[in-house]
Amino acid sequence: MEDRVELLTRRLRLRRTRQGDAPVLFENYTGVPECSRFLQREAHQDVSRTAAMLGKWCDSAWDEARATFSWVIATRDEDEPIGVFVAIPDAHRIEVHYGIGERFWGRGLAVEAGHAAIAALWRSPGTQRIWTVCDVEHVGSRRVLEKLGFHCEGTLRKWLVLPAFGDVARDCYVFSLTSGPSGEFSAGGNSDVYR
Question: Is the pLDDT of residue 187 over 50?
Fold first, then answer.
């Protein structure tokens, strides 16, 4: 499982969960309503939901080949959990989703985390497509994806129901990175990844 390793960038550490992550991540990200506005879940009401999520995706899944898993995104120096980067493998495709806490927005940290995670995911055997969807009104996420080199393939009508907007399904853009016929790929920019 070449993708499930700790990744270091200039300012971040993408890693498996550690003891004590849940309360900090809850305060920084999972429990913050504005951070879940464009997600298929509401903000976590208590830290136990965050702990369960971390136990499943950011710990036990790291040992299961081809299981959905996630990196905890933490600051490199303080090792403070500020978000997550989720990978959902499916045959030759990997769907990705990410988010960081509101007080860390506007610093390019989501792009920095994305470059590291995507470079690692391309090392997964047989990967030919990395993709995601983004609500048409989520301008910040769209900009992150463009900076990561993702290409917008079009609009998926009535694709996702987001609790923050009620029960009516919303339109989303679909973005992707793909490998060429001989396996070459481009993740856009310098990933600055250290293993």
Answer: no
Rg of the chain (C-alpha set): 16
Q: Which alpha helices (H) appear in the chain, and where do they start and end?
A: 21-25, 47-57, 109-122, 139-147
At 110, list the tokens: 């989501």
Residue of higher predicted confidence among 164 and 83 = 83
Quick check: 93 and 131 in contact, CB under 8 A?
Answer: yes
Q: Look at residue 141 and tell me if it is in a domain.
A: yes
CA–CA distance, 148 with 150 (Å, rounded to integer): 6
Exposure string of 34-59, with b = 16+ CB inside 10 Å and e = fewer, is ebbbbbeeebbeebebbbebbeebbb
Tens of pLDDT, residue by residue over 31-48, are 888 878 887 788 889 999
Phi, psi of 103 (to 5 degrees): -75, -5
Q: Would 172 be classed as within a structural domain?
A: yes
Tens-digit pLDDT profile for residues 98-108: 999 999 999 99
Tokens of 73: 């995104």
Which residue has 């917008």 as its token pair?
A: 152
Alpha carbon distance 186, 134 (integer Å): 20
Count of structural domains, the chain: 1
Residue 104 is part of which domain span? 7-178
User: Are 172 and 136 a contacting pair, CB within 8 Å?
Assistant: yes
At 113, is the secondary structure helix, strand, or coil?
helix
